[in-house]
Amino acid sequence: MNVFDILGPVMIGPSSSHTAGAARIGRITRTLLGAPAVKADILLHGSFAKTYKGHGTDKALIAGIMGMATDDVRIRQAPELAKEAGLEVHISTGDIDGAHPNTAKVTLTDANGRQVSLLGSSIGGGNILVTEVNGMEVSLTGQYTTLIVLHKDAPGTIAAVTEVMAEEGINICNFRLSRQKKGGEAVMTIELDGKPSPEINKKINTLPNIYSSTMLQPI
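and the corresponding structure tokens:
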């Protein structure tokens, strides 16, 4: 256990689970999109769905989608700021099978029509767990520098990616692979020790069978 688990993050309240965690889920989704969103579809599950207005979960998610940190004083004005920025937001509630009580599914669309969808849960103290990206299973906490590598499921692709990291002396602390079907789209979630150079991500993006690689800094 570390001090973050005990004290929680520096944040705008009232709740680390319903506010800080929600903001971090929004920021990760924005980072994966790689461009400002013009539309956000948010599905809230469990206690997120029941108490989001009172706890400001909706405001926190929108703030994160706009790139705000958990301690940004503008979180309370996030819906109004989103309208000013041309971000169209739709919020709905419903049940997600097997999901943690504090779960949101966020789908973002950029001006070119590109979309990214993420399923994330706020698991306490501002900590989060992302379990799905674009319909594929992942395991992402946001506490480590992480590579999200979308690629074709083809022999040698994993080896090529890990070889780049080995050449740079970067250690992998967690690795997960998920695919839609054999030979189809797949995703690697790779959590790394230390602070690797962004050049590693650039090298991975030039490899065969890679659709996109995104480096997420700790959020």
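(Above: one complete record from the training split.) The chain has two domains: 3-133, 145-216.
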